[in-house]
Amino acid sequence: MTIFTLATAVPAALVLGAVTGWSRSAMGIPTWVSWTIAAPAILIGSLFAWASTPLGTRNTTSILLKIYRREGLEAAEERLFLVSPYRVGLQLCNLALEREGDQDSADAVYRRAVDCGYPPAMVNLAIRLSRRGEEDEAQELYRRAVDAGFTPDKKP
Question: Which terminus, N or C, of the chain has the lesser number of Cβ atoms within 10 Å?
Fold first, then answer.
């Protein structure tokens, strides 16, 4: 939500300054400079605002799935460099769900999401490990998920 607020408030303030002439009077810059600063802020801000909404998140996941299928996990992770670790964990968990049929691939992606500190990925990986009889590691992941604030009724 903070990204959305900043991505919309900063361009709005710059446009308001250019329209009202505030930037010209307060900062002493010409109107064309105000608009030159405001225009890229609108473009960049709208992209960040879109990416921080649920619709943007779903579309980001769809784009990452396509990259993951074509180029692999490392290429998909490279596209996530501007996102918070928790959001990266969410996206990686979505990628792991896509790979459920391939046990090794899904486990590898879940482990990356666990490294990002995403509690639902910890639980999902623990369930998978428990089914295979790897109880010690599964119990450790359950403990980590609970320590990170995961509860079964709580949505991420």
Answer: N
